[in-house]
Amino acid sequence: ALAFVPHSDVLLIAAKDGLKRRDLVTGDGGMILPGETNVSALAFSKSGRWLAIGSDSGSTQGLKVYDARAWTLTGSNTNLWFDPMFAAKALAFSPDESVLVTAAGDPRMDASELQCWDVPLLKALPFPPNTVKNAACVTFSPDGGQLFTGCWDGMVRVWDAATRTELPNRRSVQ
């Protein structure tokens, strides 16, 4: 997994032994979070304050949020079922940085699910029952009013971000 630190030339890299940083201008780099292994997804919030990490197995399995200003863990949910085929494949912060959406699972097998979390503590937020079982990527609209899911079957689904309900008349096939 890879993610740029917002407003910088610093790339975060998920390596076998932890998360590393690399400044693409100066070449400087080093370990930031040793031991964060098996990372399947990374995402920074818009301001760069929060870093979400999805890991699929081992002692670091689960979903975590770090305060990226001090690299301190603020929220963790390690009780999630993230095995190698059911890992957090996509993460997205709302523009106001209060909500994190995850698409976890194996979208090719119609075995993925969407979940929402309060930031930074990672308390589960309600997500109404839906039929999406193959989400591979997620993002919010710039104003935070809508959530988009890209699915393995080529369908882009649009959701009302406040109610987390799909707007079926807004679907698009790619």
User: Hey, roughly how much beta strand do the residues contain?
Assistant: over 45%
Number of β-strand runs: 17
Largest sheet: 5 strands, antiparallel
Fraction of residues in helices?
under 10%
- N- to C-terminal separation? 25 Å
Structure description:
- The protein is mostly beta strands.
- The chain starts with a strand and ends with a strand.
Would you spell out the secondary-structure blueprint of this structure?
Blueprint: E1 2-4, E2 10-15, E3 18-23, E4 29-34, E5 39-44, E6 50-55, E7 62-67, E8 72-77, E9 88-93, E10 99-106, E11 111-118, E12 124-125, E13 135-140, E14 146-151, E15 155-160, E16 165-166, E17 172-173
Antiparallel strand pairs: 1-2, 2-3, 3-4, 5-6, 6-7, 7-8, 9-10, 10-11, 11-12, 13-14, 14-15, 15-16, 15-17
What tags apply to this protein structure?
174 residues, mainly beta, four-stranded antiparallel β-sheet, 17 strands, globular
Quick overview:
This protein has strands at residues 2-4, 10-15, 18-23, 29-34, 39-44, 50-55, 62-67, 72-77, 88-93, 99-106, 111-118, 124-125, 135-140, 146-151, 155-160, 165-166, 172-173. It is mostly beta strands and 174 residues long.
